[in-house]
Amino acid sequence: MSERRIAWLFVTLLTVQLVLLASRAPAPAHASGESLLAATGLRLVAPLGRLVGAVGDGLGSVRAGIRLRRTLLEENRVLHQEVERLRLERVRLGGLEREVEHLAEALAEVRQRPGELRPAQVVYLDQKSWLQTMVIYSGKSAEEDQPVLTSTGLVGRVVKVVGPYARVEMLSHPDAGVGAMLESSRRQGVVRGAGGGRLELDYISRQTEVALGERVLTAGIDGVYPAGILIGTVASVVPGDELSHHIEVAPAVDFPALRQVFLLDRPGFPDELRPAGEAP
Amino acid sequence: MKLLRFFAALALVTLLHFAGTRLLPDFPRAIDLFLVATVLTAAGGGSLAGMLGGMVAGLTCDALSGRLYGLYGFTDTIIGYGTARMAQRLIFDRAGVILVTLVIATFVQHGILTALEFGLLERFEPPDPLWWTVEALANGLTGGICFALSGTANRAQARRQERVEKLRLKK
After folding, report:
1. A241, A253, B91, B125: which has the highest count of C-beta atoms within 10 A?
2. Does the beta-carbon distance from A174 to B69 stay under 8 Å?
3. Cα(B105)–Cα(B117) distance, integer angstroms
4. Does A25 sit within 8 Å of B64, measured CB to CB?
5. What is the predicted pLDDT for the residue at A114?
6. A64-123 pLDDT tens trace
7. Would you give the DSSP letter of residue A163?
8. Which residues pair with A260 in a beta bridge?
9. What ipTM goes with this model?
10. A16 CB near a chain B CB, below 8 Å?
11. How far is A131 from chain B (nearest CA, A)?
């Protein structure tokens, strides 16, 4: 093929790609209407990630087995020391028990998590775009908008499902939003991703007293996440506009260290109750 | 045969990307193996191979990225074609040339990505200058090393063939 023809092909190819990009731009990449091409790409590439993970795990377990014998005695000694320390700690914490019970009663309401937790393996964590999405393998098919969490707190929600794989939009994604509340004042706001693994809490009025280190929980008002899941703790509070604080939230989940997560299986939000025009 | 070799290389790059990410969480931020593959393909082949190779490598990278699908495909198409056209005018026979090309390509790639995101999504997120520099240097060094190694392999094969022909002539 002559260079002139190739140049024309180049221009045509770029134009087509630009038109396709522009046509999909208003619907963000995580929306349910993601293209067949994107789904095919994910389907082709994700199994390679799982393969690498399996090989890595295999090698890791062989190495661990070799080291196990050498480290077992040392570990046992350390554990004995730990048990002793915990016994002393238990005695020290005895006086705080009643206070804890009191707090537990107050939190009982937000601790209810309807539904079953299903484990899923993190196949790929998107560090390149600063912790915005990840791909998980759950064996069974997940559902869009399904909450994803760990034992330490909320991770995000499923935005794309391809067979047993699912792409998860993490809370740190700039488009992510969660209905949230401050634990002590029960004041509700919205937690948004601020990029680079950071979170921000908006719409908390300046009259509200916000303490550093205060826990931020899901409010259960957005139709996606149930109430009472830990999102993070207040890291900084600065006066925002005339009406509200500007609050930075330290995520409860260590996003870069995620290896396994849980999908929350629970009845979906009824379509009949969604506001008109909002996609399920 | 060339096509098969390209897809084998792309599969290897994807595996290395996954393995690197597993070993070092910052790996994808520090190096873009898909860009390295694009530039090496374009430097060694024609402009059509560079353009299509760049597009396929970019779309593979898109499948792993949380960004709008097709951004890397678009960008790497331009870089693949541009590198191939440059390779037709300049002589890409040294690892140093590949290193410089990849450093420039990395800056160009992020420039185009940032401009596209701003134009299409009205989101302005310029890359971190430190990581940008690290990635440019890492891409350049990796590309340069790959190029030098492939050159060494080619020269070794040529020497072996020369020796075999000499032996035939002696007989």
Report:
1. A253
2. no
3. 18
4. no
5. 60
6. 887 787 788 888 889 988 998 888 788 778 767 766 665 665 455 445 556 778 889 898
7. T
8. A121
9. 0.76
10. no
11. 9
